[in-house]
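Technical annex, item 7. During the second reporting period the consortium partners agreed on a shared format for inverse folding records so that results from different sites could be compared directly. Each record opens with the tokenized structure and is followed by the designed sequence. A conforming record, contributed by the partner at site C, is shown below for reference.
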């Protein structure tokens, strides 16, 4: 009886853990991070995008959440690793050509202080970013280094998601992409 009870409690704990993880992930899908500057410095309750390795030191990301991203397509970036919690120094990341670092800062993680620290929700969401999540940059021109009410919109899957292509077999039943093309042309000699 004790073993059964322990087993049931363990299963319930696992289910609750998985459910809370899934719920937390879905809560940040579509979250909009405000981006105030490009290659600038975080001044407080702020968001910044850094485009070069050299710019990391000047961006004041010491206590910010830093997210290293690689370019996927125009204005779409994918997190290369989990978000990095600031620890008092420049984040230890190595940027490749085309990479950016999104920096999000708030002086607190206590949501009850949101009126005093308005970027707290952004900080909490940024802390949950995992490798493979996507950002779409809106009203941000990286070439001109401008942000006009710019946003980095988070999505759990690739924006646009590609085409929803349906493949049918010879009987018209839907099948997965077979990965080949069947040539059924007939020569004109008969």
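Designed sequence (site C submission):
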């Amino acid at each position: 009886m004790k073993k059964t009870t322990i087993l049931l409690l363990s299963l319930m704990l696992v289910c609750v853990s998985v459910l809370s993880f899934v719920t937390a992930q879905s809560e940040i899908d579509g979250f909009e991070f405000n981006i105030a500057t490009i290659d600038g410095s975080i001044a407080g309750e702020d968001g910044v995008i850094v485009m070069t390795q050299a710019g990391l030191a000047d961006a004041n990301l010491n206590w910010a959440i830093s997210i290293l991203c690689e370019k996927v397509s125009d204005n779409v970036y994918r997190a290369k690793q989990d978000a990095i919690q600031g620890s008092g120094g420049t984040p230890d990341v190595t940027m490749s050509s085309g990479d950016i670092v999104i920096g999000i800062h708030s002086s607190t993680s206590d949501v009850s202080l949101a009126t005093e620290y308005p970027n707290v929700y952004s900080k909490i969401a940024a802390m949950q970013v995992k490798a493979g999540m996507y950002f779409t940059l809106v009203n941000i021109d990286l070439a001109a280094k401008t942000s006009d009410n710019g946003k980095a919109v988070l999505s759990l899957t690739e924006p646009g998601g590609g085409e929803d292509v349906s493949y049918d077999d010879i009987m018209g039943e839907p099948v997965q992409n077979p990965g080949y093309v069947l040539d059924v042309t007939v020569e004109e000699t008969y």
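Residues 14-25 have pLDDT under 50 and may be disordered. The radius of gyration is 23 Å. All partners now use this format for quarterly exchanges.
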